[in-house]
Amino acid sequence: MSEEFVRFCETSEIPSGAKKHAKINGTWVLVCNVKGRLLAVSAICSHQEKPLFTGRVRNCKISCPVHGARFDLETGEALDLPATKPIATYAVRVVGDWVEVKL
Ligand code: FES
């Protein structure tokens, strides 16, 4: 099955320092703008499947608001307990005025 990039939102919706989550083809995706660089990950924490998208982003890492585990936004790696599994990461690109992700 081929996987295609799909439109996520307009670029103006995620300025530097902002983030946005949306359900794309049944998958919750979080896109963060880290100093002008767009990074896309799962919007759901790998520990107990809780929402990750309200977490705080700092130094290219996001902290789960539920139990505090941090995840690397580039690799998805879990950096703290109680999370032990990574979160999914997705390719992201800008085409014209649109941010697109590949699931
Ligand atoms: S649900 Fe995210 S660390 Fe527990």
General description of the model:
The chain has 103 residues and is mostly beta strands. The chain has one domain (5-102): 3-layer Sandwich (Rieske Iron-sulfur Protein). The chain has no helices and 9 strands. Strands 1-9-8-4-3-2 form a 6-stranded antiparallel sheet, with no helix packed on it. The chain binds FE2/S2 (inorganic) cluster. FE2/S2 (inorganic) cluster is lined by residues 45, 47-48, 50, 64, 66-67, 69, 82-83. FE2/S2 (inorganic) cluster (FES) is lined by residues 45, 47-48, 50, 64, 66-67, 69, 82-83.
User: N- to C-terminal separation?
Assistant: 12 Å
Q: How does CATH name the architecture?
A: 3-layer Sandwich
Number of strands: 9
Name of the CATH first level: Mainly Beta
Fraction in beta strands: over 45%
- Range of helix content: under 10%
Q: Compute the average pLDDT.
A: 95
Radius of gyration: 13 Å
3D shape: globular
The molecules bound to the chains, other than polymers, are: FE2/S2 (inorganic) cluster
Q: Spell out the CATH superfamily.
A: Rieske [2Fe-2S] iron-sulphur domain
Characterize the largest beta sheet: strand count, sense, and whether it forms a barrel.
6 strands, antiparallel
Secondary-structure-based class equals mainly beta
Strand order of the largest sheet: 1-9-8-4-3-2
Regions with pLDDT < 50 over 5+ consecutive residues? none
Count of helices? Answer: 0
Topology order in helix (H) and strand (E) letters: EEEEEEEEE
Summed up, the domain count is 1
CATH topology: Rieske Iron-sulfur Protein
